[in-house]
Amino acid sequence: MSFRLAVLASGGGTTLRNLIEKIRQGQLTASIDLVICSRADAKALQRAEQAGIDCSVVDAKALDVEQRSEQVFQLCRDHHVDLVVMGGFLHLLRIPEDFDELPEDIIRAFEGDPE
């Protein structure tokens, strides 16, 4: 099973770079469909653009937590992501109910063999 990811970042995008590399090497069965940054000057945006990944900026400082959360998770819904990776996004978010549980198929993908 391949997972559609959104990566949230605020700076250099080290987590994003590592995820991109793991996907390219076949060590992670996923696609990064969206990168959301809290700053327009974040290097993570450059990394995403170089990799052909859709990006958005949510100006975290200009919004209260409810507005910020709504913008971030609406973008995630619009891109139909399965998982949201908090890769250095350094601002408080309220996780909505439709994102607060892992779907059963994701849980099954990570179940180990029973002992």
Task: Describe this entry's structure for a reader.
With about 120 residues, the protein is an alpha/beta fold. It has a single domain (about 5-110), classed as Rossmann fold. Helices cover about 35% and strands about 20% of the residues. It is built from four helices and four strands, in the order βαβαβαβα. Strands 3-2-1-4 form a four-stranded parallel sheet, sandwiched between helices. Strand 1 (about 5-10), helix 1 (about 15-25) and strand 2 form a beta-alpha-beta unit. The longest helix has 14 residues, at about 65-80. It starts with a strand and ends in a 6-residue tail after the last helix. The relative contact order is 0.23.
List its traits:
115 residues; Rossmann fold; 4-stranded parallel β-sheet; 4 helices; 19% strand
In short:
With 115 residues, the chain is of the alpha/beta class. It is 34% helix and 19% strand.
| Uncertain residue segments | none
- Please give the count of helices: 4
Characterize the quaternary organization of these chains.
single chain
N-to-C terminal Cα separation, in Å?
Answer: 23 Å
Helix content: 25-40%
Shape: globular
